[in-house]
Specification:
By secondary structure, the chain is mainly beta. It has a single domain, classed as Elongation Factor Tu (Ef-tu), domain 3. The protein is built from one helix and ten strands. The strands form two sheets. Strands 1, 2, 3, 6, 7, 8, 9 and 10 form an eight-stranded antiparallel beta sheet that branches. Strands 4-5 form a two-stranded antiparallel ribbon. It is elongated and about 70 Å long.
Amino acid sequence: MTFTPKKILVQGKKVPYVQSSLKIVSGYGEITNRVQVSGRSVQLIPAENLETQIAKISFDIVTSDFDSDIDPRVQIQTWKANIGAIQIMIEPDGVGQTQLYTNASLVNDPDIDESPDGVIMLSWEANKVTLTN
């Protein structure tokens, strides 16, 4: 099964983005193993590292594809101001489940490309993914 995203919605609004730029770390976190020894018996004891359960989503937006009445700089400023209060939804095209990321924050300070066909890279961190149908 191949997941091919169709839409990225930030706060319920579709965001134009470069399809090949989307990168996701789901936020399931890392597992560390410890060894417990009893006599000659060795047993691995797995433990979740809760500090690594942070989803990371990054993608490039295309400034020329934004609605003519929305300045991408204003939209970015709004996202930056809503720390931990953004919802990102990635809806699949065909097969796959919708990915929901809550309590997201725009963590980078984006470089604004002022060219007519400018591209702006956005990096987000959020709660780990919730998959829905």
